[in-house]
C-alpha cells in the first residue's frame, strides 16, 4: 500500500490553512470541555445560584418599594372616598325602591314630635297606651268590646 503524504503547512494555500486552524481550535475546545466538563458545570451552577440570589434580592427590594408607594397612596387618598361612593350607590338603590332617606326620616320624626307636643302628649305615654291596648287585645282574644 502506498501512503499518502500530507502536504506541510507551507505547501497549503492560506485559505485552507486558516480553515484547518479553525477546525483544530474547535477540536481543542471540545477536548478541553470534555476534560473540564464537571468543573465547568459546577462553576455554571455556582454562577446560576449567585444570579438567582441577586435577582431575588432585587425583586424583594422592588416589592418593598411598591408596597411603600401603595401605602403612601392609601394614606393620601383615604378609604372614605370609596365609602362615599358605596354610600351613594346604596342610597340610589334605596331611592329606586321608594325607601325614604335618613334626612327624610329625621324630618318625619321631628314632625311627629311637634304634633305630639301640639296634642299635649308625651312620646312615652303614647307608647305605654299602645302597649296597654295590645295587652288587652290578647286577653280578649283579639276581639274588642263594643263601646
Sum up the structure in keywords:
147 residues, mainly alpha, 5 helices, 78% helix, 0% strand, rod-shaped
Describe the overall structure:
This protein has a domain at 78-139. The chain is built from five helices and no strands. The longest helix has 40 residues, at 37-76. The model has no long low-confidence stretch (mean pLDDT 77). With 147 residues, it is an all-alpha fold. The chain is rod-shaped, with a radius of gyration of 48 Å.
Class from secondary-structure proportions: mainly alpha
Our estimate of the beta-strand percent is under 5%
Q: How much helical structure, as a percent, in the residues?
A: over 70%
* Average pLDDT: 77
Number-wise, the strands total 0
Q: What's the helix count?
A: 5
In whole angstroms, the N-to-C terminal distance is 148 Å
Shape by Cα distribution: rod-shaped
> H/E element string?
HHHHH
**Poorly predicted residue ranges:** none
Main sheet properties? none
Instruction: Give me the Rg, rounded.
Output: 48 Å
List the helices and strands and how they pair.
Blueprint: H1 14-35, H2 37-76, H3 80-96, H4 102-119, H5 123-139
Short description:
This protein is mainly α. It has helices at about 15-35, 35-75, 80-95, 100-120, 125-140.
Amino acid at each position: 500500500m502506498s501512503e499518502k503524504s500530507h502536504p506541510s503547512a507551507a505547501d497549503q494555500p492560506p485559505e485552507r490553512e486558516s480553515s484547518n486552524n479553525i477546525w483544530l481550535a474547535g477540536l481543542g475546545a471540545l477536548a478541553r470541555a470534555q476534560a473540564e466538563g464537571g468543573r465547568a458545570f459546577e462553576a455554571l451552577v455556582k454562577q446560576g445560584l449567585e444570579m438567582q440570589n441577586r435577582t431575588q434580592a432585587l425583586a424583594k427590594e422592588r416589592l418593598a418599594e411598591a408596597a411603600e408607594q401603595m401605602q403612601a397612596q392609601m394614606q393620601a387618598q383615604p378609604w372614605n372616598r370609596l365609602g362615599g361612593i358605596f354610600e351613594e350607590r346604596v342610597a340610589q338603590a334605596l331611592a329606586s325602591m321608594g325607601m325614604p332617606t335618613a334626612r327624610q326620616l329625621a324630618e318625619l320624626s321631628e314632625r311627629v314630635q311637634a304634633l305630639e307636643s301640639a296634642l299635649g302628649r308625651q312620646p312615652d305615654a303614647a307608647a305605654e297606651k299602645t302597649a296597654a291596648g295590645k295587652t288587652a287585645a290578647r286577653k280578649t282574644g283579639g276581639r274588642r268590646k263594643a263601646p
